[in-house]
Amino acid sequence: MACLRPADCSDQVKKLQTQLQWNCELEIKSQNCAKLAEEHPDWAPLMRKCDLPSQCQQQKEYAQQKALACLRGYKNAMVDLGVSLKDMTVSLAGLVEDSWESIKKNNRERAAFLKQCNTSLSCKKDLVKDDHRYNKLSDEEVNKLPATFLYVQAQDMKAYMASLERVRPKPYVPIAERARDDTTMTPEQSQKLESLMTIAGSKIKEQYGRYMCYNALAREELECYAIGSVVDPTLLAGYFVKGARAATAAGRLLKAEKEVHAGAEVAAGSAKVSRSELTGRYISYSPTSVEQNTAWIARAEKGADAKVTFLDVENSQMKYLNDSLKDKNLVTGLTNYHKELLFDNIKELEAANPGLVIDKYSDFKSSRFAFSGKVPKDIEEQLEKVFDKTNAEFNKKLKESDALKPGTKTEDWFRAGIGNSADEANMAARYSRQLDKNEVQSFRKDGLKTTMQQKIMSLEKQRQELRTEVAGTSMVDGRTFDQDVFDIVRKGKGDTAQVQQALKNRYALSDISTGTVKKLQSYVTATDEFSPGIYIAKREIAHLNAAEQGGLSVDIIGLGSANLKGTAEALASSSNVNKALESTRAAEKAVTKKFNDQKKQFEDVLTRAVPAGKLKSLCSGDDCVAVAVKPLNQAEKQDILKGLANTDYSGTYRLAFIPDGVKNVSSRNALANHGESVEKILRQSLGSEMEPRKLKGLTFGVDMRTQNLNEGSVKLLMGEANGVTLTAHERKRIQEAFKAAIQKFNASSSTNYNALP
Description:
There is one protein chain. This protein is of the alpha+beta class. The protein is 54% helix and 11% strand. A seven-stranded mixed β-sheet has the order 9-10-8-11-12-13-14, sandwiched between helices. The protein is globular and about 95 Å long. The model is unreliable at 4-9, 78-92, 103-110, 162-183, 203-209 and 227-270 (pLDDT under 50).
């Protein structure tokens, strides 16, 4: 917009300026920018002003200072990501080149990059600058080729050239030693920055609705911040809160570089991982793409190979953490934070071993790697150091954080194993769980394999003895035992008296000896060491972050016990370790197929129970959520429960409903977790009183009728399968048990919910 004196303006120019002012005012009104400035007075200098003199002044400042604003935004991104100042690119040209390469490699942003690149000849030429097959083509020939094609071709050539490399890479030189702290760029770098800005700006608008509240200079800083953090939108909303950034963005741009450097070093050195960051930024973090996971799975399914080393790192305490912390998002964030540290350390190992090829995989619980190519002789020793370093960094950061209660022990959460196949590595990691010292276990060592062979023989002996001791009861099923036996023992967590009582209640036993129960506990624990890992190429995160209109969460009961039952049945027909690995993998595939059908039936029920488009559902592992586009009414909730009660898997869905209007994202997810926990207590208590067939025919939904976490009213909703008829006494008893479940949960969680009749 041309900034002219009023006397110089024609009617046409005045009309244009009036229209621009009107558009500006409409935009900031729609984004409720006034409220943003009111909530955060320090941000007020950053807000757009729509009157003509202010727009002209903002335009002038932008032209004069945009390069410095961009550089500052980039530096602050590095500080927030914990990058040491000595390793930080401190020139704008360095920022552009580094971010250009980084965003090409970033799986989340590659599609946006290639879409933008498709419109730029210079971008296409840059893609193939090192590929002799394409870098000598004419501009016209290059422009005819899609950016996606050129990118794939360039990556293939890069991989081929890397395979020919026979020498170690040159010593690393920090970028700070190679670049001056200025804003000078070549014309090509200017074009790259323009493309990066387009990608970042559209991403910010998509993820951070109030982006257009800010003036041009502040938006420039935000965009370069996004580029520096490889477009991680979870960092954007609180950007101007940090330090004195609002003041600097408003015009104090020329601070002494010494002060900026000192502040950056302090911020980087004192960076802590917070609870909000774990449940925000890390909730959706994944170090691998679907393509990488798929490639690793294909490699794993080839079986054992003496030339390949597999590493399996798992969160061995995930179920315990979900139950004790009662915040699945926090547990997911903690697991993903450990992944980030682990993958960074694996990257360093890769750089130190030229010619080493690493296939990578990650899911909700595990990180897995396959090392091939030029595998160093001391690979096991190197991996042990990586694992120990990762755990040490994780433990240190969590002790400094506010994410967990002081004194929480995190040292033994993550366990690791090595083998010549994925299943060998997984078995070694599971074996590690029973050891006091947390260190990488190797299946290659004769001692571990011999121990597992002895366990198989011991398991078979236990199986035969136990079947004799419980013969004639409904605990016996197939070659082993009923699935609920595995579930009860697994959830008993070593409490023999609790398991004993639960078995008596579930199977209507007059008695079962303490000795038999202890044998069952030993048998189930040993069986679990042989449970194979579950591979998921595409990982989804089930949460209620977007459920402003309410929704529901579902915990699908029994996946763990179904896998245990399948593993036990497979072991009953296995004579050695190799056969056990083969048969347990086949059993896992059968259980997974059934489980996928269970999730499909859940989604089918939602489709039938509510109007099309009213719910958006997503499943991850054994958790599902449905986010409401419009609030659910009582009839729709009942239809969902009734529909689930009449599936093939009645009684295996644990539901919690949350209302619309819960503003805090963490509170939404926590309310859902609390509802599921209450249902779990309720179903367990009814197991000792109700006929199993009737209880299985009931699907409970805990309706959290409160917008306040830890307090308010909760109501029990119930879906009954066709053919299940409850007596008046049974209905009364269910309500009494629900009230008792609320009280028990309150006592264990320091909450204050009250049960509605």
